[in-house]
Amino acid sequence: MEDIQNILEVVRFRLDGFLRESLQLPEAVAVLSNLRDADGTSSAIVENKLVLSLANIEQSTIQSLPIRGGPSGGQGARPFVATNLYLLILANFTGENYPTGLGLISRVIGFMDNNPILSHADIPGLDAAIESLSFEFVNLDASQWSLYLQMAGTTYLPAAMYRVRIVPHR
């Protein structure tokens, strides 16, 4: 299993760098955190920030890889298991800062659309066992969004979800 913390930290770092550079922001705007602590309180670290949070982990078989030396000495195939992370990105900006949050979530979507695959050249510090990360926007209906936002500890914030497929070196 790849290091989930490393993956999400380097994605956060790359996304934050893009936002800081393109908007000439003096400080970090993206944090890797829960929106709420276990006791339901909000942490100061997430106020007026883009909050990146792991929403789900799944494994899926995406193809078969040839293997040698099966029981009859011939070739066979073994499934290649990919790990997908579901990354919830919330614009935690309220009141007069709400428009800022809308602008940032729009830029996140644009960044992900323009960078659907990130490799070591794009995100230094990525675990050496990983070849690349691919990002796919996840469409959710209103009831699904409601459940994810409820799990995050809020009723509504502008948000986007991405399936992050981890492509390991073979």
Verbal overview:
The chain is an alpha+beta fold and 170 residues long. It has one domain (4-168). It is 28% helix and 36% strand. It is built from 3 helices and 6 strands. It has helices at residues 4-23, 98-114, 142-152; strands at 30-32, 49-68, 75-92, 117-119, 130-137, 159-168. The protein has a 6-stranded mixed beta sheet with strand order 1-2-3-6-5-4. It is globular. The mean pLDDT is 88.
Quick rundown:
The protein has 170 residues and is an alpha+beta fold.
Structural descriptors:
170 residues, alpha+beta, 6-stranded mixed beta sheet, globular
* Number of helices in the DSSP assignment: 3
Helical amount: 25-40%
**Biggest β-sheet description:** 6 strands, mixed
Percent strand: 35-45%
- Total beta-strand segments: 6
> Order of strands in the sheet with the most strands?
1-2-3-6-5-4
**Overall mean confidence score, pLDDT:** 88
| pLDDT < 50 runs, ≥5 residues | none
Cα(first) to Cα(last) distance is 14 Å
Furnish the topology, listing elements before pairings.
Layout: H1 4-23, E1 30-32, E2 49-68, E3 75-92, H2 98-114, E4 117-119, E5 130-137, H3 142-152, E6 159-168
Parallel strand pairs: 1-2
Antiparallel strand pairs: 2-3, 3-6, 4-5, 5-6
